[in-house]
Amino acid sequence: MSGTESRTAAVAEIKAVIEDWAEAIRRKDASRVLAHGTEDSVIFSLAPPLKASDSDPDGLEQWFSTWKGPLGFTFQDLDISASGNVAFVTALAHLSGEKHDGQKPALWYRLTLGLKRTDRGWKIAHQHESVPFYMDGSLKAAVDLDPKSEVDWQAPSHPPMAGVVAYLNVQDANATAEFYRRAFDAKEEDRKYAEDGKRLIHCHLTINGGALMLNDPFPEFGYPWKPPEGFVLHLIVDDADFWWKRAVEAGAQVTMPLEIAFWGDYYGQLRDPFGITWGIVAPVKKND
Hints:
single chain; about 290 residues; alpha+beta; 2,3-Dihydroxybiphenyl 1,2-Dioxygenase, domain 1; 2 domains; 5-stranded mixed β-sheet; 4-stranded mixed β-sheet
């Protein structure tokens, strides 16, 4: 067999391996997925940590369990290069499905695979997944792109956020965000779920015109929950009575009554159900 014929045969074999691997992902068949990897395979996936191994059946099963029904998993621009006992594959991959909580994620991402020929056929030794991120200071992952997306280089960038932004690690970020919606009229700008489909790795809220970020604890990655202490989130508003009444009715606990303080502001403190202390403050009006 000539070199060209050998490479053609290898490409066909690799294409069949990749399709079977993809079908295993669609069917959420963890053992079949893992059978396509080498024992020392390395994965740089979209989810933490920075580097992982494909030989973690429990982790893969846990991720599969967050999805309801089969997954959608397709490729575009699949390119396979093979030489000898190694091969290099690039593609745009599309993952979609329905989570048990009703979410229906669908995103395109970049996929690179490194394969090597073994006595058991071609096996995936390296897997690299990535998405671009917006270069406007937000560092937001560009998961809204698709293969037809075009970048408008003349469009103005989103300005960076001004001031200092509080980023809270709370025991239940979903519940916290919902409480802040009721208590402080929070508007949700963005949220990103972890692989378990339940915990939030990021939630961006806007309250009273300012940004507030939330995330759940991730003790398995060295970020356990700790009781909040030593800080107060201040809301400087025009109508302190209105903001105070709404927050108390939503379930905030009064820890310092709303009254004219010795320094001259109309001020009080509340503690929300998640242990965060809030200060409601308004300038004293001349007729107060």
